[in-house]
Amino acid sequence: MRKLWILLLVPFGLLMVGLAPPPPAPPMPAPPVYSTPVSPTPTAPADVAGPQQAGTTRWHGQYFNNRDLAGTPAGERDDACIDFNWGATSPWPGAVGVDDFSVRWTRDQSFEPGLYRFHLLTDDGARFWIDPQVNDYTIIDGWKDQPPTEYTTELQLQGGTNSLKVEYYEHIAGAQVKLWWEKLDTYPNWKAEYFKYFDEPRFCGGPVVTSNEEAINFDWETGSPAPALGADFWAARFTGNASFVGGLTRFFARSDDGVRVWMDANDNGSFGDPGEFIIDKWIDHSVTIWTGDIYVSPGSHRVKVEYYERVGDAVMQLWWRNW
Ligand SMILES: [Ca+2]
Ligand SMILES: [Ca+2]
Ligand SMILES: [Ca+2]
Ligand SMILES: [Ca+2]
Fold first, then answer.
1. pTM of the predicted model, to two decimals?
2. I need a labelling partner for 194 at 20 to 30 A (CA). Which of 61, 114, 214, 237 fits?
3. What band does 244 get if pLDDT is binned at 50, 70 and 90?
4. Could you list which residues have their CB under 5 Å from ion ligand 2?
5. What architecture (CATH level 2) is domain 187-322?
């Protein structure tokens, strides 16, 4: 077994995690890189190689009618996203109950090289692996009864395709689970995150591509920001700080297709609810200029723009001026 080392930058400091038995402490790594397995390429066992639509990368889910992923799955299906809040209901009526069930999800995911923060929100228990065929330790381990709890960890990925695995169980009462990630770096202008989606626009899992953009001023026509996104069915999220002179300010968003615009964060760091959109046109349309007015105090404000392209041409431009 190869000895692989990763740095888990947990909130309480640096923690080295390795395979048992613990070898002597290595020299200070420079810089830590999470290794992608090169060979042999493990083949998924037959019970997780479920049907996959051509050109898509859904999660393959095995649903068990017990808390231990024991025995034969009660049902198997592909899920576009691990982002569920089932409350007190069953994730799959007829296959599993409202309590005492478990799910295993697997998929391959390509990552750009870089430092990532992974988030796993769960009620009750969940755990997360990257390349479990090679690295038999969990990246996140929250395998216990608990109310909704968010775990985070950071790790360096060298880029390429990794296999991801999430296991989850529900004991009693409410049930929810969500996995997502972000690429950490310095974004002096706009942090642009580009996602793929299936069916309906949403920001699922993590971005396929992350970049710094000097302005939100794009006319991709029938192209896209990156080959990995393809021409259609992708979405973008832009976040950045901008300086305002203050006063009544009119925002302009010229878009094809949907767009929504927020300003400033709540105390908990997240942007507001839909009632606080400056512009909210989350609908398919040909290129259109939308406006929204807001009073702004002088100085720096945080602005967030979400955008999606369905099919055909793709345009996203944002600007503003005092009104
Ligand atoms: Ca329940
Ligand atoms: Ca629960
Ligand atoms: Ca297009
Ligand atoms: Ca379009």
1. 0.79
2. 61
3. very high
4. 123-124, 173
5. Sandwich (2.60)
